[in-house]
Design a protein that fits this description.
The chain is flat and about 60 Å long. The chain has six helices and nine strands. Strands 1, 2, 3, 4, 5, 6, 7, 8 and 9 form a nine-stranded antiparallel beta sheet that branches. The longest helix is centred in the first third of the chain and has 29 residues, at 2-30. By secondary structure, the chain is α+β, with helices and mostly antiparallel strands. 36% of the residues lie in helices and 30% in strands. It has two domains: 1-31; 32-233, Pnp Oxidase, Chain A. It has helices at residues 2-30, 49-62, 106-113, 141-150, 153-161, 171-184; strands at residues 70-76, 82-88, 91-93, 96-102, 116-123, 128-138, 196-210, 218-224, 229-233. It binds flavin mononucleotide. Flavin mononucleotide binds next to strand 2, strand 4 and helix 3.
Length: 236
């Protein structure tokens, strides 16, 4: 009797999972959401895309979005394989977007071979996307030192302990390294590891996308012409 009940329960659960996975498939193929965003006009945008970015970024911060400074960074490996991950944008300096990472990570290796990157900010609640293409350079050692010095101690230890993107056999391996570096740097100012620092992305193209009703979205793109920017509107 008990075995029969268990078998019945298993069957019931399998059917439930199948129904649910069909629901998800239907959801994905049928979900539609219209956009209601206010227009993005040639007349209202700033002539300079960095200024325009600052306006939108401030609006994203004021809208209290979760991590408005999170952006995707796409790099391309030596054999042409693109790879995307989220990192935090930590500032805009001299019209360049700044992020910090491990120079020996997969992205660091990609960037050594190919300094072309693509960044993307998605602010869903505001129905906005900003796409950036640009060229990356390492930040100066002094700049990276200054930022590293401001990080919480745990994050500084993490930068030493994590050989970012390398394979770990167990989580304990990482935790043991944290214990090791915590002890090593006990009572001293933690120096920046040379494998960790900033990158600055100089944009060559920046596109502002605003969701609009009936898929007739607004897209304004700025292309760098040296000292100036050319502004155009793209089809949605
Ligand atoms: C919200 C969020 C923020 C992140 N911020 C950073 C960051 O600022 N720097 C960084 O190196 N990795 C950051 N990561 C982790 C990266 O997405 C990625 O896992 C890591 O950099 C290794 O990437 P790689 O192996 O392609 O080099 C963040 C991940 C998330 C989800």
């Amino acid at each position: 009797m008990l075995i029969k009940t268990i078998n019945f329960l298993t069957l019931f659960l399998v059917i439930l999972v199948l129904i649910m996975s069909d629901d998800v498939k239907n959801y994905l193929s049928e979900v539609r959401r219209d956009f209601s965003g206010k227009p993005l006009n040639e007349e209202s945008v700033d002539e300079n895309p960095i200024e325009q970015f600052n306006v939108w970024f401030e609006e994203a911060v004021n809208a209290q979005l979760l991590d408005p400074y999170a952006m995707s960074v796409t790099t391309v490996s030596a054999n042409g394989q693109p790879s995307t991950r989220i990192v935090y944008m930590r500032g805009i300096v001299d019209e360049s977007f700044v992020f910090y990472t491990n120079y020996s990570s997969d992205k660091g290796k990609d960037l050594e071979q190919n300094n072309k990157v693509a960044l993307n900010f998605f602010w869903g609640e505001l129905e906005r996307q900003v796409r950036i293409e640009g060229l990356v350079e390492k930040m100066s050692a002094e700049g990276s030192d200054a930022y590293f010095a401001k990080r919480p101690r745990e994050s500084q230890i993490g930068a030493w302990a994590s050989d970012q993107s390398s394979e770990l056999l167990t989580r304990k391996e990482l935790e043991d390294k944290v214990v090791y570096f915590t002890e090593k740097f006990k009572d001293v100012v933690i120096p920046r590891p040379s494998h960790w620092g900033g990158y600055v992305v100089k944009p060559v193209k920046i596109e502002f996308w605003q969701g609009r009703p009936s898929r007739l979205h607004d897209r304004i793109v700025y292309t760098n012409l040296g000292d100036d920017w050319k502004q155009s509107r793209l089809s949605p």
